[in-house]
Amino acid sequence: MLAPGFADPVHDAQATFRAVMDALARPGLPRPLTPGLTPPAPLTPELAAVALTLTDADTPVWLDAGLAAAPAVAAYLRFHTGAPLTEDPAEAAFALISDPARCPPLGAFAPGTPAYPDTSTTLVFALETITAGEGLCLTGPGIRGTARVALAPLPEGFVAQLAENRAGFPLGVDLILTAPGRVAGLPRSTVVTEA
Amino acid sequence: MSATAMPEPSGHFPSPLRGGVRGGAEGTAEFNPAPPPPPAPPRKGEESDVGASGYNFAYLDEGTKRMIRRAILKGIAVPGYQVPFASREMPMPYGWGTGGVQVTAAILGRSDVLKVIDQGADDTTNAVSIRRFFAKTSGVATTTRTTEATVIQTRHRIPETPLTEGQTLVYQVPIPEPLRYLEPRETETRQLHALAEYGAMHVKLYEDISRHGHIATTYAYPVEVAGRYVMDPSPTPKFDNPKMDDCPALQLFGAGRERRIYAVPPYTRVRSLDFEDHPFRVQEFTHPCALCGAEGVYLDEVLLDDAGKRMFVCSDTDHCEGRRADGHVGTGDAI
Prior knowledge:
A: Rossmann fold, 10 strands
């Protein structure tokens, strides 16, 4: 049977959006996110909450190999969001990534165009842990001085990919990072370096 | 935090600015002055908190909110860039803050406390009608106190009380494109922003200097955000520009008629354009506020009679009331 969506579609979506908005406005600072969803594995409750809050018929969604291999995930997303699923990451408005260590390079996704940099892909990661105060060094808009955040697991050479993503500003992809019970943001404007 | 009583609209000061409140009382006629009933508890399986008036929470439907929310996230990711969005018709005319209202509706939640100001005042027509609109369609608590508010919708002022990290400031924007009066074609201004080609704006400021001896732009003074996009701060007096820089609050901008949303994240560099030999300066006032004696705040000129008697008082009514409650007294003198 199909798992239910938000118990309270209006206010659960609003609470999820505000957590994501605050997360992107203050990169690297995790916000609590407890959506109370029970989506089919490997879709996590946090990934599902972001998808139900932000995607609809106007936003093609790309699923990573793990999610695409589970037909129940596609059925869940199709039913609750109506979003078209795409196999081309460069066509996606949102990309859901359940296995960050095997995420394709960030360059495979849409970076937007110089006149319309908003036509880029937003990547939503399901990480195992997000720990503030240690790990990567972040600077940029939304950050007072420097922020530190440790993310795991990450793909090989991820910091170099993020540097390349930042170098193309205002083009580039934005990252919404989720872990059990929390969400953090890494917009394209953030400069990320190894500590 | 509790909702404070909303004052009745007293007379409002007509604005000389574009997109300002031009109408009289007819704009507020449709808003019932009665206080909103408390929201009914949600029933399971039903869209929750459909207001007593039959609207979805905060008026907009969920699909529209999703579209606006996506635009807000892109705006935050690319500070100062104008994100196109599918602006809806709102139950108020363009120029009354339809962009700001849509942004506020998309972010507002049940636990928010909303403040709305119009030229710094909580009690003028535009502020009262928008505050009542959200009290009626969402049932959120409203306040006139800057320190109590979590969301502040503003038309052309930034509160004098410094904003804090938990707050979001939503601007109503008439013309979001800072280059519009220099280049009327949207196709061209898009290219100018894409190429970061802002020479024309500097020429405009230079022409001010050559004609007046100083930069004569006093409101909608262009700013550069995070070292990249030149942005219109909406027609706030340039007095408020320094408050945008490194501000702890999130700043969101909505232009309803022009269908653009943009944003300045917290702690972001916002630099007012200037020249080395003509640095940016804000307005200075020779007198303190006649009511509360405040200095270093933005003042409104109020005409008192036909003979030209006038006095200067705080534009930020909450700041002025707070100071008077703390015992500060101005001279009360007309000039």
